[in-house]
């Protein structure tokens, strides 16, 4: 060959819609020494990139989504990791909670991060393993709802291979295994709020995306029986649940999030390097310093709302996903220490359909008289059924005369409880206490990057301001 000395540089190429691809360019050189100098200099520069992982622990759920997790990892992700000189220990799960249990046993300090290949449920499992392990090692009792949880600095990377993949979509902007693998390789870091869910001083679960009662809880409960249908189960159960049009009665109490500048009705969304998240985190840290060990939350006001609801959704992030690209709460922030509480009160089937359709178009889904949205830092819910039982009003009639409201048989109010959908997993209790923990964990992601259209719109706003 006339030009025998060469080296190839692999790099990330940004494509449309937040998709990243790996591209390469080969440099040729007649002078061998010069070529080697370049290779050496590039290797040294790469060594300086301390945020990049070298050793990863990978969990694959072979049964998530369309059961393609193993194939996706082997064909699309593993070759990229090896190109980037990342060593991996790969663990293919054999049962639910396998990954979570394993995380309590492994020598976690050996790894720069944990990767989960699967959907939201699989991510939730890995997150529970990591956060749980962190608290155990630090002697924190997870059953205490007020315990100050220890931050988890080991990043999690999500390779989407599930049915909804909402956590991946809401933090990267797309559900694409190659894009996610590249975010892991370049060592991105995105802090994430996590909410803890308790019942009577007993820890139930953590949640990062949707905690939903009523509509989304009923969909999940029904769809779990139809896992064999794959991702289609959500469409089938969604349609069935929509037709059943059940509403549920209960009491909601919440503490508004006063530390953050943002509001759920903002027009701008959380984007890479979000200033609202940064400012909110600083504000909370200052409050904590001032209050010391005293719980400042105890002194803050609680708002109480009673009513009949078709859906009660608490979201820590937008919950954008391919079905709803702007999500359940488009202006929710990934790391601002707050969650958006969305209350959909009893309304007609037609109005509820109008509300749902707005998740798929540009119209404002909160602009309805029967929808309320609040930004909160803690939240509690008790169903009417439980309140009645607890206040010793033993209305035997309600228990014996069917599950529906006896006074108004046509009103679709369900006397039975709904189920909580917690990041795609059901909860055993309907009465819950929720608390947002600001930036409790980190992902190999950078949040959604502003696209050119948004960037130029914001730029022209700045120009106007100047
Ligand atoms: N080997 C396994 N066998 C059975 N269940 C498993 C296994 N490994 C993990 N799981 C469980 O499967 C559940 C669902 O997995 P996953 O989230 O990957 O897919 P999905 O439910 O199809 O997607 P999504 O959560 O995005 O809707 C998780 O809760 C996880 O605990
Ligand atoms: C007639 C048009 C109806 C369109 C309705 C679109 C609304 C879709 C919104 C989906 C949001 C999903 C939030 C994410 C939840 C996940 O945690 C969970 C587990 O993966 N998925 C589901 C479906 O519960
Ligand atoms: Ca948040």
Outline the structure in words.
This protein is an alpha+beta fold. The protein has 14 helices and 16 strands. Helix 2 (69-83) links the parallel strand 3 (55-60) and strand 4. Helix 2 packs parallel to helix 6 and helix 7 packs across helix 8. 41% of the residues are buried. The structure holds adenosine-5'-triphosphate, the ligand CCCCCCCCCCCCC/C=C/[C@@H](O)[C@H](CO)NC(C)=O and calcium ion (CA). The site of calcium ion has 7 residues, from loops. Residues 51-201 form the DAGKc domain. It holds the Pfam family CERK_C.
String of helices and strands: EEHEHEHEHEHHEEEHHEHHEEHEHHEEEH
Number of strands: 16
Q: Strand-residue fraction?
A: 25-35%
- Overall mean pLDDT stands at 91
Give the number of helices. 14
* Poorly predicted tracts of residues: 393-404, 459-466
| Biggest sheet record | 10 strands, antiparallel
What percentage of residues falls in helices of 4 or more residues? 25-40%
Oligomer: single chain
Shape: globular
Counting helices, strands and paired strands, the structural category is alpha+beta
Distance between the termini: 59 Å
Name every ligand kind in the structure: adenosine-5'-triphosphate, the ligand CCCCCCCCCCCCC/C=C/[C@@H](O)[C@H](CO)NC(C)=O, calcium ion
Radius of gyration: 24 Å
InterPro entries: ATP-NAD_kinase_N, CERK_C, CERK_PH, Diacylglycerol_kinase_cat_dom, Lipid_Phosphate_FormReg, NAD/diacylglycerol_kinase_sf, PH_domain
Domain DAGKc: 51-201
Pfam family, one: CERK_C
Protein name: Ceramide kinase isoform X2
């Amino acid at each position: 060959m006339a030009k025998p000395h060469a080296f190839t540089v692999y790099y990330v190429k940004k494509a449309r819609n937040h998709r990243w691809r790996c591209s390469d360019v080969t440099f040729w050189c007649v002078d061998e020494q010069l070529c080697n100098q370049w290779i050496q200099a590039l290797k040294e520069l790469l060594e300086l990139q301390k945020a990049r992982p070298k050793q990863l622990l990978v969990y694959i759920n072979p049964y998530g989504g369309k059961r393609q997790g193993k194939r996706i990892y082997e064909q699309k992700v593993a070759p990229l990791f090896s190109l980037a000189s990342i060593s991996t220990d790969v663990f293919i799960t054999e049962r639910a909670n396998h990954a979570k249990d394993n995380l309590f046993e492994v020598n976690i300090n050996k790894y720069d991060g944990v990767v989960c290949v699967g959907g939201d449920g699989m991510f939730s499992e890995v997150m529970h393993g990591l956060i749980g392990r962190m608290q155990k090692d630090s002697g924190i009792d997870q059953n205490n709802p007020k315990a100050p949880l220890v931050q988890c600095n080991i990043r999690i990377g999500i390779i989407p291979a599930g049915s909804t993949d909402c956590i991946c979509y809401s933090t990267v902007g797309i559900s694409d295994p190659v894009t996610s693998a590249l975010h892991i390789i370049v060592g991105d870091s995105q802090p994430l709020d996590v909410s803890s869910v308790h019942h009577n001083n007993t820890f139930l679960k953590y949640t990062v995306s949707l905690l939903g009662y009523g509509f989304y809880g009923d969909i999940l409960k029904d769809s779990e029986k139809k896992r064999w249908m794959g991702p289609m189960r959500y469409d089938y159960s969604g349609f069935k649940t929509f037709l059943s049009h059940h509403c549920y009665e209960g009491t909601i109490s919440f503490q508004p999030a006063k530390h953050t500048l943002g509001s759920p009705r903002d027009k701008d969304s959380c984007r890479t390097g979000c200033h609202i998240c940064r400012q909110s985190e600083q504000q909370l840290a200052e409050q904590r310093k001032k209050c010391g060990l005293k719980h400042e939350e105890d002194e803050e006001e609680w708002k109480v709302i009673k009513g009949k609801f078709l859906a009660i959704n608490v979201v820590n992030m937008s919950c954008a996903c391919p079905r709803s690209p702007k999500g359940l709460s488009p202006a929710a922030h990934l790391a601002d220490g707050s969650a958006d509480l969305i209350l959909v009160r009893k309304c007609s089937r037609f109005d509820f359909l109008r509300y749902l359709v707005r998740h798929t178009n540009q119209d404002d889904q909160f602009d309805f008289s029967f929808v309320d949205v609040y930004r909160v830092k803690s939240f509690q819910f008790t169903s009417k059924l439980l309140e009645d039982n607890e206040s010793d009003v033993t209305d035997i009639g309600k228990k014996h005369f069917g599950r529906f409201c006896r006074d108004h048989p046509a009103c679709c109010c369900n006397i039975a409880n709904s189920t909580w959908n917690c990041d795609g997993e059901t909860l055993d209790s309907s009465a819950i206490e929720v608390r947002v923990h600001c930036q409790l964990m980190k992902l190999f992601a950078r949040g959604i990057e502003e696209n050119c259209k948004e960037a130029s719109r914001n730029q022209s706003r700045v120009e106007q301001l100047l």
